[in-house]
Queue: 3 jobs
Job 1
Amino acid sequence: MEGKVRLYVPATLANLGSGFDALGVALDLYLEVEAEPAREDAFFYEGEGHVEGTDNLIHQGYRAGMRALGLPPEPLRIRAFNPIPLARGMGSSSAALVAGVALADRFSGGSLGREGVFRVAAGVEGHPDNVAPAVYGGFVAALAEPPLAIPLPKPQGVYFVLAVPPYEVPTPLARAALPAKVPLKDAVFNLARSALWPAALSSGRLEALREACRDRLHQVYRAHLMPGILEAIEGALKAGALAAFVGGAGPTLAALAREDELEEVAKALEDYRGQGRTLVLNIGEGYFWKET
């Protein structure tokens, strides 16, 4: 690469409300990575939060990719610029792992391919709904075992309004809040609505997403970690959002809206955002390389 080619990996939103651990979407906000062979591993980081050391997720993904190919992970000097908020439910960890596996693919001459990058990264990360859109872009339905990802149609003229609170919700804490069992009626409720996502995107009937985003499996159980989240979701829908849901494990609230509804939806989310920030982003592409 000789520092002349840069890798871009998108932020992602997992679950989309009803599609717990199964549906995700890429955002037009990208982790940027450059890497080159070195005598020993080195890591230089700029951007959100503080990350240091050569046991970072990018290096971990690279080593996993090389191991999957049966190749020794030669040392790399990695430089990363990360604009994706950490521990906010926007897929920062998945982006880093996908970046590392994509580096392994590039330095091995493309031996993994995009499907191999997905397979390895999903195996390490464990959440295919974050990994798949980082690899393929747009909306994706995905499984980790067996590894399978199918891109869904990308609607035009819609954007995500993201209300990003100033606090973190670590994924392990969010996972611990989930019950071991749920009522059958709640499982059926989610199955029916998760099936609406591909149907609505394929048919262009985006008004159905208002129902497709509704959930009874995870958001209600995690609401105590994100004060006001459930009320804010309803507020976004009332303000004209096509869909509204918790991004990943939270605390980011994501609302999908047409351009003429963006201002009202953003205003409806101000109280929930608090001292955090609002981002308005397009739907993103899967990881790509660009000459610098």
Note: The first helix runs from residue 57 to 68.
Job 2
Amino acid sequence: MSRNVAKPRSSMPRLRKPTAADGAQIWSLVKNCKPLDENSMYCNLIQAEHFADTCVVAELDGEIVGWISGHLIPARQELFVWQVAVGEKARGLGLGKKMLFELIERDVCDDITHLKTTITEDNDASWGLFKSFTRALGGKLADEPHYERDTHFDGHHDTEHMVTITLPEARALADAA
């Protein structure tokens, strides 16, 4: 008598750099993670291919369940994190923070002194993630209105606050992780 046994779920997603082949799954994940802005699938393909060094995917049992898109700001020692998405299957694992640490520990980020992102005032999940990350890192967080509702979004989107996290010295980074 044979039994149909389901494959056990991995306990923690595998973190890696994305490839262009991940673009469609990344797009689908972001689409299902409200209130994130949906970009085009083509945008996610370009991010995964051209900015792989500053983006992270989290894969669990062959499915992409986490995503960070980011890029180095030209001529500055700063990393801008555009989006952090964690799918339902991976929530409650601290995955967002793990992906942020994975990202800043990459060689391409060795010289960054600040991590930046924008967050609307009412996005409690993002504020919680970045404040928790800053505490664990031993950094300092500051914010100010940046892309304003009326000036930049023609009244169609809430003001985005520029969040700046000052990173501690490199030797303190290793201890924080």
Note: Strands lie at 14-16, 56-60, 63-72, 78-86, 114-120, 140-147, 160-166.
Job 3
Amino acid sequence: MQYSVCRVPWEHAAPLLKTVRERVFICEHRIPKHVEFDRKDRQAIHMLVCDDLSQEPVATGRILLTGEIGRIAVIKEHRKQQLDKLVLAGLLKVAKDLDLKEVFIHSPLDAVEYFIKHDFCPVGAVFMEAGLPKQQMACATMDAAVKKCYLSH
């Protein structure tokens, strides 16, 4: 399968980004819609991955100017393609382009090992967010395991 990875602003791609996040976070994970979509979406830089054959959006993620990475979501049927790594690599490239020294994510506990493999380290204690236990994970952008990722703008 072939995929296109694009860096997009919310105002241009909101319907596509929402499609992915609604399927993953609202339908699968039962996150309330008013929690999933927040004011930060308008300020964030988003990554969007589309299936080249169907032209359907299949993955997304966002980064804020504070370095907070979040809302990484991949449609269930495409998870074996490891599109999460493409999204993360794209977000880390954006962080470097913005000259951010560090990025962080509020990771679900079952994903902590995944982020450790990508050069993130736990910071602080476990906390609750949207009714789920989370661990803040941080990474210096110069240490981040960024694979080659070609972005369309």
Note: The radius of gyration is 14 Å.
